[in-house]
Specification:
Blueprint (H helix, E strand, L loop, with lengths): L2 H12 L14 E6 L6 E4 L15 E7 L2 E3 L10 H10 L5 E5 L2 H8 L21 E2 L7 H10 L5 E4 L3 E6 L2 H23 L8 H13 L6
Parallel strand pairs: 6-7
Antiparallel strand pairs: 1-2, 1-5, 2-3, 3-4, 5-8, 7-8
Helix pairs in contact: 2-4, 3-5
C-alpha cells in the first residue's frame, strides 16, 4: 500500500474518533508505520488541527533517526504524542498502526489508576488480562513513552493514568476496532464497580481465548 492510500486511511479514521467517543476536540492521534530511512518511520496526524478539516497532505512523515529520536520536514508539526507512537513501533515489531484517545470510560478508570481485569472474555483481544494502567507522566515526554511501553508488555492496549488509552494492531482498521473495544470494556468495568466490583474469569480461560483469537475469528477482521 503506498503512502497516498495510508494518508487517506488516516484522514478517514481520524474523522471516526469523535463519533466513536474516542476523542474530543483535537485530542487523540493516529499513526501508521512506513518504511522511511535506516530506522523506519511513520505517518502521523498533525498537532492541533481539527479532524474535520484534515487533508491527506496534512499527515506528517516522521523518520526515526534512532531510539527515541526522529526528524521531519513538513509544514505542520506531528502530534505532540509522536514520541509515544515511535516508542511503540520501536518496541513492538508487530505494530503497524497506533491509536491514542481520551474516551470517557477508559479515562475515568485511568484517573483512578485502575486496570481492566478479565471481567469479559473480550479482554483477550488486547492480548490478555489485565489491561494495565501506566503511571502518570506529562504528555509528549520520554517518561510517558517508556511507561506506556512497559504497560503494553504482552498486551496491545493500555490505559494512561490521568490521560486516556493507547492501542496498537497490525493495521489501522484493527487498531481502531481494538481502541473502541477497550472503551467498551472500560464502560463495563465502571458499571460493575457501581455494583460492588466485577466477577472475573480465571487466567486459564483468558489464555484459551487469546489462543483462539490468534488463529481465527478476530484475526480476519
Amino acid at each position: 500500500m503506498d503512502h497516498a492510500d495510508l494518508r487517506q486511511q488516516l484522514v478517514r479514521h481520524a474523522n471516526r474518533l469523535q463519533p466513536l467517543g474516542l476523542a474530543t476536540g483535537t485530542s487523540g492521534n493516529l499513526s501508521v508505520r512506513i518504511p522511511l530511512g535506516a530506522f523506519g518511520g511513520m505517518l502521523i496526524t498533525p498537532s492541533g488541527i481539527a479532524y474535520d478539516t484534515l487533508q491527506p497532505a496534512d499527515m506528517v512523515p516522521v523518520q526515526f533517526t534512532g531510539p527515541g529520536t526522529a526528524s521531519w520536514q513538513h509544514a505542520l508539526d506531528p502530534s505532540s504524542e509522536w514520541l509515544m507512537h515511535q516508542a511503540v513501533y520501536q518496541a513492538r515489531p508487530e505494530a503497524g498502526a497506533v491509536v491514542h484517545g481520551h474516551p470517557t470510560y477508559a479515562t475515568v478508570l485511568a484517573i483512578q489508576g485502575l486496570e481492566i481485569p478479565a471481567l469479559h472474555y473480550m479482554v483477550a483481544a488486547a492480548g490478555g488480562a489485565p489491561i494495565r494502567c501506566a503511571p502518570y507522566h506529562t504528555y509528549g515526554t520520554a517518561a510517558l513513552s517508556l511507561a506506556a511501553v512497559a504497560a503494553l508488555e504482552g498486551r496491545k492496549a493500555c490505559l494512561l493514568a490521568h490521560h486516556g488509552l493507547l492501542a496498537f494492531e497490525y493495521n489501522l482498521d484493527k487498531a481502531m476496532w481494538l481502541a473502541a473495544e477497550v472503551e467498551t470494556l472500560a464502560q463495563q468495568m465502571v458499571m460493575c464497580l457501581s455494583l460492588g466490583g466485577p466477577r472475573v474469569l480465571p487466567d486459564a480461560e483468558i489464555a484459551v481465548v487469546v489462543d483462539k483469537f490468534s488463529r481465527y475469528g478476530l484475526k480476519s477482521r
